[in-house]
TrEMBL record:
Keyword Protein transport attributed: no
Signal peptide: 1-20
Gnk2-homologous domain boundaries: 24-128
Biological source species: Punica granatum (Pomegranate)
Lineage, uppermost ranks: Eukaryota, Viridiplantae, Streptophyta, Embryophyta, Tracheophyta
GO annotation, cellular component aspect: plasma membrane; plasmodesma
An example Gene Ontology molecular-function term: D-mannose binding
Membrane topology label: Single-pass type I membrane protein
Coiled-coil ranges from the UniProt annotation: none
Keywords, alphabetical: Antibiotic, Antimicrobial, Cell junction, Disulfide bond, Fungicide, Host-virus interaction, Lectin, Mannose-binding, Plant defense, Repeat, Signal
Name assigned to this protein: Gnk2-homologous domain-containing protein
Entry's family note: Belongs to the cysteine-rich repeat secretory protein family. Plasmodesmata-located proteins (PDLD) subfamily.
UniProt cross-references to InterPro entries, sorted A to Z: Cell2Cell_Antifungal (IPR051378), GNK2 (IPR002902), GNK2_sf (IPR038408)
Subcellular location, principal: other
Length: 158
């Protein structure tokens, strides 16, 4: 009879033993050479887009795409993805971690992405016209600014 009273306690202990935090080891990030004027409205659009990615990636099957309007009839696109083995809470924590890292690494970049072990996040502004850019868009390719770390037995989702 005492066994049945211990079952909930055993289950609770097992839950906490199995749960793990997301691995936010930074693997790489890429920043576009083209940048926008920090005093323009693009920064708010980028922030809104990435906040949307943080808020919805875990709820949208761990693979979420979004877009938000930007000044001059432009659009900021965003994407977030998590390792499918993560819990909902851990996916949310991972993209929440990635957001400020992306902003810090790639301040004012027209396009940027960051990849950590358990999630990734990216943003870019449509390239139809950019009257407020401080550099022309003739170099729209991403440039690697940090060497990738070798994945040893990593998860193939990212």
């Amino acid at each position: 009879m005492a066994y049945y009273r211990c079952v909930p306690l055993i289950m609770l202990v097992m839950f906490y033993m199995v749960r793990a935090d997301p691995d936010t080891s930074e693997l790489e990030y890429h920043c576009n050479n083209a940048v926008y004027d920090p005093n323009s409205g693009y920064r708010a659009s980028v922030d809104d887009t990435l906040r949307d990615v943080v808020a919805n990636t875990a709820d949208k099957a761990y693979d979420y795409y979004t877009s938000h309007p930007a000044p001059d009839n432009q659009i900021v696109y965003g994407h977030g993805a998590c390792n499918g083995a993560l819990s909902h809470v851990d996916c949310q924590a991972c993209v929440s971690y990635a957001f400020p890292k992306l902003i810090n690494h790639c301040a004012y970049s027209v396009g940027a992405q960051i990849k950590v072990k358990d999630c990734r996040m990216s943003q870019f502004i449509s390239q139809f016209s950019h009257p407020t850019l401080t550099q022309p868009l003739h170099t729209p390719t991403f440039v690697q600014v940090q060497a990738s770390l070798e994945l040893s037995g990593g998860v193939g989702l990212l």
